[in-house]
Amino acid sequence: LAIEGAERAPGRAATEALHAALDALRETRVSPPVHGDRLRACVPVPKAERFVSCGDDGAVKVFDARTLEPVMVLRDGGNPVTGLAVSPDGAWVAGGLADSGTLVWSLCDGRQVLAVPGRAGAVGSFCADGSRWLYLDADSRPHLVAIPGGEETCTFGEITFHAAVLSSDGRLVAGIQQRGPARSFDCSGPSAAVLA
Questions:
Q1: Which of 13, 73, 98, 171 measures 20 to 30 Å from 79, CA to CA?
Q2: Burial category of 66 from C-beta neighbours within 10 Å (exposed 0-12, middle 13-18, buried 19 and up)
Q3: Count of CB atoms within 10 A of residue 103's CB?
Q4: Is residue 113 a contact partner of residue 92, using CB atoms and an 8 Å limit?
Q5: Cα 54 vs. chain centroid, distance in angstroms?
Q6: How far apart are CA 120 and CA 30, in angstroms?
């Protein structure tokens, strides 16, 4: 059910389909993954019959969507992980920590590839091929970095955002500024150029 829902409805709708499937499992008395007192996020992995979950126990786990058996533990505890973002190519997952910062793992081998200071719970946005990732630091400044290395690929100067998203091709960033209007930027060069 969760896999079919994720295939039919990408993005937020896929997450809602996965939550509906977990609710259905609870009704049939099959035990869904538990993360301490609270499951914070449950996100399908594109092109795989898997999902990633996190919660108040600080763990981040990858599950087989058919059997609900864990297939990989990316993080085994610590500060709560409050949100997840999986790259559209299914290669990477970012987890936002409750106290601040974001971790990025490879979904191929489970290794942590990046740890960046960031806003509490923020997970950022991946481009479609998973090669670039946009995140906001603790001061709400955007950073566009290469994955897995973390090298900054485009700079934004002193701009701060309340929220921002990366286009699927990794060249455009749209964001709502902390103080000022919504803006879009061309990030195909080393410095972001304001488009609107």
A1: 13
A2: exposed
A3: 21
A4: yes
A5: 11
A6: 33
Distance CA 119, CA 32 (A): 29
Output the six-digit token pair for 31: 């035990």
Which region, left, alpha or beta, applies to residue 128 given φ > 0 means left and ψ of -120 to 50 means alpha? alpha
Q: How many residues are given for the chain?
A: 196
The dihedral of CA 25, 55, 123, 181: what is its sign?
positive
**Over its length of 196 residues, how does the chain's per-residue pLDDT go in tens digits?**
444 444 455 556 656 666 666 666 555 544 455 677 778 888 999 888 899 999 888 899 999 988 888 899 999 988 888 889 999 999 999 998 888 789 999 999 999 999 988 777 778 899 999 999 999 888 888 999 999 989 999 999 888 888 899 999 999 999 998 777 889 999 999 999 999 7
